[in-house]
Design brief:
mainly alpha; elongated
């Protein structure tokens, strides 16, 4: 790895850890540089153009790793459960391959729950053909349900997944034990399938 690439990676790793521990707004760019062992306190601006560029680079790294993990997965079984597994399992594989302790899940939770960083997170979507195909397949299988209800459930699920994975990661750091990400993934896939596929108790009245 070239020196510039190593310095960039060190900044990303340091920022991910610090943001996970303290939150994005509470950590200065200078502190990120110092934690990365970089004597240039303007290193974040030099390599990423500033805080927003750093956050976008962190999200791009995660999305790229998830997309790469999805490439190696077998085809889904043509069901709602299979489509959801195809969407969720790559993220669990990425988390499982990170060095211990890891901070990725807690960083992502901060990004999701911070109104200032949420737009950056939403912008960093996996638009690879595999991901788009899975989303389209899942939408078609849920077409019999009210799309507004499905969208509301999807938003709730996003928050549940974020909170769950962050808690698992934090608990693993406290205990010193490896998190069992494959088992966490199975649990989440089953729960998401049930929530998305559940019948609607009170359908909206048709507009007159």
């Amino acid at each position: 790895m070239r020196r510039s690439e190593a310095a960039r990676t060190a900044l990303l790793d340091a920022a991910e850890r610090l943001f996970a521990e303290s939150g994005v707004a509470e950590v200065s760019d200078r502190r990120v540089a110092e934690a990365a062992g970089n004597t240039n306190h303007s290193a974040v601006r030099y390599y990423f153009g500033g805080r927003e560029g750093l956050l976008k680079a962190l999200m791009a790294r995660h999305v790229h790793e998830v997309a790469q993990a999805r490439v190696g997965m077998p085809p889904t079984d043509g069901s709602v459960l299979g489509d959801i597994r195809g969407l969720v399992e790559p993220s669990m594989r990425v988390l499982d391959q990170l060095p211990r302790p890891s901070w990725r899940a807690r960083f992502l939770e901060h990004m999701l729950h911070n109104p200032a960083t949420l737009p950056i997170m939403r912008e960093a979507q996996d638009t690879t053909p595999q991901a788009l195909e899975l989303r389209e397949s899942l939408a078609a299988r849920l077409r019999h349900l009210d799309p507004e209800v499905v969208a509301g459930r999807a938003l709730l699920i996003t928050r549940i997944v974020s909170t769950t994975t962050a808690e698992v990661e934090a608990r693993a750091e406290r205990s010193g034990e490896d998190p069992r990400w494959p088992e966490v993934g199975d649990f989440l896939v089953d729960a998401i399938t049930g929530m998305l596929s559940a019948p609607i108790s009170r359908p909206r009245r048709a507009e007159s």
